[in-house]
Protein: Methyltransferase domain-containing protein
Amino acid sequence: MSSEATRIIDLYQRRALEWARDRERGGGLVEKSWLEQFRALVPSAASILDIGYGSGVPISRYLIEAGHHVTGVDSSATLIDLCRDRFPAHEWIAADMRTLALGQTFDGIIAWDSSFHLCPDDQRQMFPVFRQHAAPGAALMFTSGPAHGEAVGSFEGELLYHASLDPAEYRSLLDQHGFQVISHVAEDPDCGRHTVWLAQRV
Structure:
């Protein structure tokens, strides 16, 4: 099943505009309460690294409108161009999150609905990436599955891979890389049943 993970970048590039359309449809922000918890951990004009930001809507847009400077990283050239047009004062970078090395740190890092497309081994390797880009006291927020396993859904008739580590392993990886768990909710009913992790570098 993990072989489907290798097709994610290609899928999001080919289906970028359809994905952006569906993500932005409805105009709601079910993530707002989590974003507010995240923002409470960072300075008022914090620098934010958004990993796998997609179309920049709604999360990057919300952070920009709240006064933060956003650096976004995504593998889809189409989505990068879209964000550059929408938010030209911010930085949008084409890169594979697994090998990210920007040579700078940020006050906050978000990987919302992005790193859970990686296979388990690649997810484990994201924690050194998080640490490398986290300033002292930085907030880190990401989504995962509720339990260890792999699953394949579909988008526009194509297979869409997801994976999750066990919650205990996420906690261990966060601890090993210098992050303290601030809040964690599995399948949050107030956030579209997302499983969310909010941590802070200590």
Q: What stands out?
A: The beta strands are 47-51, 69-74, 91-94, 106-111, 134-144, 149-155, 158-164, 179-188, 194-201. The chain has one domain: 2-201. The longest strand covers residues 134-144. The chain is about 30% helix and 30% strand.
